[in-house]
Amino acid sequence: MKKQASVAVYLFYLSLWLAPLALLCSGFLDVRGLLSVFSPRNTGILLFSLAQAALSTAAAFLLALLPGVYLSKKSGFLSKIIASTLFIPFFYPVVSAVTAFSLLYSDTGILAHAFGFHGFLYTLPAVIFAHALYNAPIFVSYLGEALRKVPEELIESAKTEGASGLQIFIRIKLQLVMPALRKACLLVFVYSFTSFGVILAIGGGGFFNLETAIVTEMRGSFDFSRALGLALLQLAVVSALAFLNFRSDGVNDDLQPSQGKAGPVFTAGSLLFLALELSFVGAGLFASVWRFDFARFDLSPYLQLFSRELNAKFHIWEGVRNSAFLSLFAAAVVTVLSMAMIKLKRSWSDGVVTATLGISAAVLSISLLYLNIRFGVPMGALLLLGYVLLAFPVAWSYLDFHVRQFDPAILEAARVDGAGRVQAFLFVELPLLLPSLAVSTLQVFAVLYGEFTVAYTMQADQFLPLSPLSNFALATSHHARESAAFSTVNLLLVLAAFLITHRLSSVQKVVRDNRP
Amino acid sequence: MKMLIVILAIFGTLQAASAAVKPELTVYIYESMGWISEKMAPEFEKRNDCTLKLVKFTDAGSILARLKLEASSPRADVAVGFTQALTLLARKAGLLSAYQSKSLTNLSLDGLVFDADGYATPYDYGSLAFVYDPAKLTNVPKSFREVAAMKRSLLMQDPRISSTGQDFLLWTIAVFGKDWKDFWKTMKSAVLARTPGWDESFAKFEAGEAPMMVSYATDGAYAFQNYGAVKYQAFLPEEGAYIQVEGVSLVKGTKREALAKKFIDFMLSPDFQNEIPLHQWMFPATKVALPECFRYALIPTKTVSLKNAELEGMLEKWLIEWEEIMK
């Protein structure tokens, strides 16, 4: 019964993704478009996409190695800052990341002025490095947690048997952390593989992966058939990787660091990691208040955001309010759906959810729009659906561990006392899971608040001004400085949400520790 | 009898209600044409007793993509902003209807009508140019070849995504003819970055990443009007300038054909054409007085162009060939 319910629910979830895509394909995909996938040009694009993603993943791992080990051994202030960098891959907007990277590493950037560092931006190493900076915190988090789980007794026994540090690392630690590392590899690989903003902006138009090729087919050649062929190819590759590789562990931030010192090498490596990551975030913030041409601080663009004229034209604060409410509502829906689906989880469920990361956001948006064009499905409903589909893997990834680790003995005890299934859920399970649900909701809120592609394609500003669209309108109407200031305001909002989730996680840990 | 009176009353109310609802005209424009909603849209609505719904897209290419999606049930009545290349693509896809506007007289430049069949009616034009920072570039190049000799000095828009970038590519094809690929093999090293659109190019240009960018000959006019000074300069290569003409088109399948045609005529009226220079930063298609700041705009003396017959069916091939060269 439960197995049938699982299959039905996951099939329904898949249909939400695939039905609009199938409809779009029925309207525009033909044999020519499908066969073009095998052309020398597209084969080259696929190979480049795979190669750059592999190199980016390797670079991210190397950058994360030392701080990951440090995180497993220490729990002080430095560790907390390292752990907080997990905000970057999931919540730091790509637009802000690209601006910050250019500010730091361009020929006229900060490093060029300070150290004469030239000719780096718009090269393949720059793209790989940007991906590494963006995604290394994922490795840090997974590696740190996995190393913490290595039982100390095993290490002590091996030492007693005469094993060296290197032997212990290769034969014990590496084997035990491999599942977590594999999962982190997959996530980072998929994010780099499907990257768009970094490839386009930091690559300077000189590099083409599948995602950029899909967009240029749609906007340059207007060949939807070829674009859909490429989109299906991307989906096939990511689905194959997801099903071959995925095993669920979830991220548990409750584990205490293992015993042992973190030597100076690990500390130095962690400090370098933090310098790179925080400069990545800080540069964008700095650029919004510093006038390079006059060498002084200038807050006037921030004041302009409150002007009546600008708000009448661009609906700045109305956009903030609408984005906040819509994102919060969608986040709540996503969290409830994720929890329900996790309870019906099977061994292949992670593969299903991860595979959907392979669907291009641009193609998803156009698929949903096509539903409105063909069948008159209300735009508001499609906008909400788009938000839910995009954010679902984020909520899933977080809630998976917390929902599945819930002690069934507690529910059993409630049932023995006479509580029905619904009562046990409402009065026992739900209150205990509430901090986790709140954290998940806020995380999804932070992701959705800055979402642009779906909102822009749905033309949401026709019926509901939203913050990212107001910002885009500012930027394209010669209000670049006000747009930069507005980006910083939105970034601070997202950062606040992330910090609240951190605080709630601590509360959640206290609740768990004090459970009888 | 009473029932009959009730039915007649309801019917009469419905008739009156439908008569009171104004016809709505849907016009697809690109983002920076939003100024139309301020003064021009109310004027058109007043003259024609209608409601004008302006739907904004990133650029004219996005408008074409949307028309393609809606081909089976078009929602737009008018599409604004199609260049020569985009009009050919839209015609080929069967998305437009022809309309020869009687208001298309008193043109300010010969050769503006790039579609003789009336699938696009020109409403403004501009000349592409190289814009440079005089503080960084003291030896100003005079030709395309001299630009190509300057390593990592030019910001351009990606022709695979941007209509400005597309027209830049077409400009070089118009200049060099069948040797355009050889030219781009030398030009490749001069390009620092290709951006998705003009705004991204300008942001990098202002940040000082490169001394030159592909832009428009009216940039000087814009700078003078908004900042009181012309910080950046423009130049046109000696081979000739490329005129980018923008057109307004009737969408095939529109249910408001008469009103749509009136809108096209309206865009050629003196009231609308007078607004073009200070809002579009382009030259109006018809002869109207230009504002004072346009004395800082470059007026081309020599131009190059491509005929529709040369352009038809070639754009996709050229884009792929260009992409191959630029790898």
Describe this structure in words.
The complex is a heterodimer of chains A (516) and B (327). By secondary structure, chain A is mostly helical. Chain A contains 25 helices and 2 strands. Chain A has a two-stranded antiparallel ribbon with strand order 1-2. In chain A, strand 1 and strand 2 form a beta hairpin. About 2% of the residues of chain A have low confidence. Helix content of chain B is 40%, strand content 20%. In chain B, strands 1, 2, 3, 4, 5, 6, 7, 8, 9, 10, 11 and 12 form a 12-stranded mixed β-sheet that branches. The longest helix of chain B has 19 residues. The model of chain B has no long low-confidence stretch (mean pLDDT 91). Classes of the chains: A mainly alpha (516), B alpha/beta (327). At the A-B interface, helix 12, helix 19 and helix 24 of A face helix 3, strand 7, helix 8 and helix 13 of B.
- Shape of chain A, please? globular
Q: What is the CA–CA distance across the termini of chain A?
A: 33 Å
Helix content of chain B: 25-40%
Low-confidence sequence ranges of chain A: 247-256
Biggest pleated sheet of chain B = 12 strands, mixed
Q: Please report the total strand number of chain A as a whole number.
A: 2
Strand composition percent of chain A = under 5%
Order of helices and strands of chain A: HHHHHHHHHHHHHHEEHHHHHHHHHHH
Q: Within the largest sheet of chain A, what's the order of strands?
A: 1-2
Shape of chain B: elongated
The overall pLDDT of chain A, averaged over residues, is: 84
Oligomeric nature of the chains: heterodimer
Number of strands of chain B: 12
Structural class of chain A: mainly alpha
Helical residues, percent of chain A: over 70%
What's the number of helices of chain B?
13
* Strand content range of chain B: 15-25%
Please compute the radius of gyration of chain A using only Cα atoms. Answer: 24 Å
- Helix and strand composition category of chain B: alpha/beta
In DSSP terms, counting alpha (H) and pi (I) runs of 4 or more, how many helices of chain A?
25
Largest sheet of chain A: 2 strands, antiparallel
